[in-house]
Amino acid sequence: MVTDNTIFETNKTSTLLRKFAVPSIISLLVLELYNMVDTVFVGRYIGAEAIGALTVAFPVQRLLIAIGMLIAVGTSTYVARSLGEQDIKGMKRVIYNAFFITTALLTTVSLFIYLFRIPVITFLGASSRIYPLAEDYISIILIGGVFQCLTAVTCYIITALGNPRITLYAGALGALCNIVIDFLLVGIFNFGISGAAIATVISQIIAFLYVVYCFKNVGIGLKLNYSLKKVAGGVNAEIIWGIVTIGFSTFVIEISDAVVAVILNNMLFSKGGDAAIVIIGVITRVSMFMFIAIIGVASAMQPIVAYNYGAENDKKMKEALKVAITVVMLCSTSLWLILMVFSNNIIGVFLKDQVLLPQAVSAFRICISMLPSVSLYYVAIYYYQAIGEARRSFLLSIYRQIIVFIPCAIAMVQWFGIIGAWLAYPVSDIISFITSLYFIRGTLKNKPVKEEKAYGSYVLER
User: What is the tens place of the pLDDT at every residue in 380-432?
Assistant: First the structure.
């Protein structure tokens, strides 16, 4: 069966959320693991400067992931809505456009970054010592960007059709291959940071080939035609705009991390040199475990809400929202406790330098001290995406990192030095929590009304 809308009709909301959340979390984990695993191996086999190089490369990887997630989330939301409305023809058109824009956009962006890699890497905060390592790594990982993003888009489509297991299998395959190849190229054959980048690209290609094989049955069932003439002829600016509009909030969430990384890299380097760059790099990698759980549950809620929005089942939508809030708060708090208690051991996996280790642990505990509170913030963003409230979702998505954190970090670094950067995290987390609580309370009281449907967009009225 190509589409399985019975999964939305017959399962309890809590069961549905679990079925979608586990693959979603693993999928996000794999996206992060490519850089995270590389960080572990280069940190242990090459040294702290290699971690600094990966920290500089992080915004580039984040940009590629952000573009892929933009298209994946926008596409999957439309697919879930179309499934709820039984609009198979519209679903096929969205899929064609998603594959086209992913391939075209990722190829263009990767080529642009490669051609202008010298000014780009310098802008990202690389010192003269870190620059050669960063250039080697970035030049290679750009090759895998299009495969990584096509994998994400395809997995999200399959998940929206009611089969989240493919994401689970593809994610596990990619992660396992990356670990094994990293160990061989970096740990055994001493390929250095280039070996870590090669391992990432090979793993991304393997995961992509697996997903293409799995998507074959979906293509046959929907009678998809992948000829260049058919795909190019089906390109529709309105559909692409609709995908981008819905997924843009996710893009902003992902790219905000890159923007913050660029600003922090330059700001911290001026205050603490390469050591500060290494510390923020390790903090970013480890804290991602919590963000993966939070965003994984929130994004798992999205197809459930989107389907019931298409089916005009307001009760199920609100129920999914409440269950997601409960689950995400429990998950994030549990992970927070583990990271706070075992932070020295966990960060020690990435960082062998015994001088930097205690500094990194102290900074890490400050940074994540209020992190569970932002769970509600991400649930709100994904809920508004699912019901088509693109403006509200967008405003929330730029709120925490761009509107609150960046000005707060700049001011606090000026007042308190490097520790001010760490303190800016809990301050922005609390402000974001209070704001999202206000929005969620209003959402639970009101009912979104789908007044009319235009292809590629939904007109909503409060």
Answer: 988 887 887 878 888 888 888 889 999 998 899 888 888 888 899 999 999 99
- Using left for φ > 0, alpha for ψ between -120 and 50, and beta otherwise, residue 190 falls in left
In a domain, 1, yes or no: no
According to DSSP, residue 404 is labeled I
Assigned domain for 3 exists: no
To the nearest whole percent, how much of the chain has pLDDT over 70? 90
Q: Which pairs from 7-11 meet CB under 8 Å and 24+ separation?
A: 7/162, 8/83, 8/84, 8/162, 8/304, 8/307, 8/308, 8/311
| 312 Rama sector, left if φ>0, alpha if ψ -120 to 50, beta otherwise | left
Is 139 in contact with 117 (CB distance < 8 Å)? yes
| C-alpha–C-alpha distance, residues 372 and 377, integer Å | 10
Cα angle: 190, vertex 192, 193; to 5 degrees: 155
> What tokens were used for 93?
């058109």
Containing structural domain, residue 186: 13-461
Residue 66 lies in a domain: yes
Contacts of 409 (CB under 8 A, 6+ apart): 260, 263, 264, 267, 420, 421, 424
Measured in whole angstroms, the distance separating CA 41 from the mean position of its chain's CA atoms is 22
In-domain check, residue 4: no
- Condensed to tens digits (0 to 9), the pLDDT of residues 306-321 reads 888 877 788 888 888 8
Indicate the number of domains in the chain.
Answer: 1
Q: In 3D, which of 275, 378, 267 has the Cα closest to residue 328?
A: 378
Give one DSSP letter per residue of 129-145, joined into a string.
Answer: TTHHHHHHHHHHHGGGH
Element (H, E) at 450: strand 449-454
